[in-house]
Design brief:
The protein is α/β, with parallel strands linked by helices. The chain is built from 14 helices and 17 strands. Helices cover about 40% and strands about 15% of the residues. Helix 2 runs antiparallel to helix 10, helix 3 packs across helix 10 and helix 4 packs parallel to helix 5. Bound molecules: pyridoxal-5'-phosphate.
């Protein structure tokens, strides 16, 4: 196992076996990390080790393997707590991912919503941060209010004070847009929400892979993310919630683990965080997520961010070489996510033709149909960069786009 102490791209890439292969006869260029990131070998090794040596169910306590599995699983919770600087391990709830995390929160908060109450979401949200709120609104008679964005794909910050009123109960906003790459000024937004007595829910799915997040500094009520975008396995994600907020929420699902005592006369619920974790949890996935976070801990994060921004600047500098290329999302503060269109070419054709050259991007509506409607496009092509990408990857993308453009337009 290599240990990366500084930002050394060759050493980093040697930790990702999957990147070292040919696709359609060409070396793979993976530019779809915003959909799901690749996992370093250390994550795969940790999962493998867990299943080979420690596998058992957790919280049962009757034998050594069970104790080991429980220790592994709970130490992953401690690792996440530390990674996002939550005040207590009680505030870290495991879910299947961001989607389930938002559903858990929306379901719980909907119990205290009344007809006419308002929920603010922005126009740049992923469906995972729209639909659970619409469902909560349908159940309760609450109303969704939409926060607009400008042409660059930034929130219209002036609008927030007009949106917040005595009926506003919840503000659900993404930290980073999966389509536009925009980094929203969440700390300031939360401050305004808090001053208005509004509960803040932050979708951090696209933020945590790119920069350090401190939930206490942000002061948000809830923060959610998925492991698989954070270089960990699929099937696990996190709800961070302030302890008092989580205490006030009813359980999400009923079953084993989440109870204190069950009888036909009535059931009492377990303490935090277990109150929200019904059934056997995703144990090996937690182990893998811990390994991913530890891996990131060995990288110089400032150097990593500089590397990613360098890749994005290089990409930006080459846009003018592709006739008819139009960027969707030109915010001032962005993570390295580039959504684009090329005149005369359908996004899905761009994706297919790049794949023939070994280059993986994503195309379509990116689970953000209202945003597509806003820009009046059916979809976009999207190249998303991670710290394991190189300048050569950026150049391969642009050389590929130029070739496609010449062939088909
Ligand atoms: C901003 C954002 N929110 C939520 C999600 C949903 O995440 P998951 O599918 O892991 O639940 C995604 C996934 O692309 C996302 O980009």
């Amino acid at each position: 196992m290599s240990t990366t102490t500084a930002f050394d791209i060759d050493s980093i890439r040697s930790d990702f076996d999957i990147l070292d292969q040919n696709i359609n006869g060409k070396p793979l260029v993976y530019l779809d990390s915003a959909a799901s990131a690749q996992k370093p070998n250390q994550v795969l090794d940790a999962i493998n080790h867990y299943y080979r040596h420690d596998n058992a169910n957790v919280h049962r306590g009757a034998h050594t393997l069970g104790d080991r599995a429980t220790a592994d699983f709970e130490s992953a919770r401690d690792c996440v707590r530390e990674y996002i600087n939550a005040a207590s391990r009680k505030e870290i709830i495991w879910t299947k991912g961001t989607t389930e995390a938002i559903n858990l929160i929306a379901n719980g908060l909907s119990q205290s919503l009344a007809p006419g109450d308002e929920i603010i979401v922005s126009r740049m949200e992923h469906h995972a941060n729209i639909v659970p709120w619409q469902m909560a609104a349908e159940r309760t008679g609450a109303v969704i209010r939409v926060w607009d964005i400008n042409a660059a794909g930034e929130l219209c910050l002036d609008q927030l004070q007009d949106l917040l009123n005595e009926k506003t109960k919840i503000l659900a906003i993404t930290h980073v847009s999966n389509v536009l790459g925009t980094i929203n000024p969440v700390k300031d937004i939360v401050k305004q929400a808090k001053a208005a007595g509004v509960i803040s829910v932050i979708d951090g799915a696209q933020a945590v892979p790119h920069f350090q997040v401190d939930v206490q500094a942000l002061d948000c009520d809830f923060y959610v993310f998925s492991s698989h975008k954070l270089f960990g396995p699929t099937g696990i994600g996190v709800v961070y919630g302030k302890e008092k907020r989580l205490e006030a929420l009813p359980p999400y699902q009923g079953g084993g683990e989440m109870i204190e005592r069950v009888s036909f006369e009535g059931t009492t619920y377990n303490e935090l965080p277990y109150k929200f974790e019904a059934g056997t949890p995703a144990i090996s996935e937690a182990v893998g997520l811990k390994a991913a976070i530890e891996y990131l801990g060995n990288i110089d994060r400032a150097a990593m961010e500089a590397h990613e921004q360098g890749l994005y600047q290089l990409a930006l500098a080459r846009v003018s070489e592709v006739p008819g290329m139009r960027l969707i999302g030109t915010a001032q503060h962005k993570v390295p996510v580039m959504s684009f269109l090329i005149e005369g070419l359908h996004p899905s054709d761009i994706g297919t033709l790049l794949d023939q050259q070994g280059i993986a991007i994503r195309t379509g509506h990116h689970c953000a149909m209202p945003l597509m409607q806003h820009y009046d496009v059916p979809g976009t092509a999207r190249a998303s960069f991670a710290f394991y990408n190189t300048e050569a990857d950026v150049n391969r993308l642009f050389d590929g786009l130029i070739k496609i453009q010449k062939m088909f337009v």
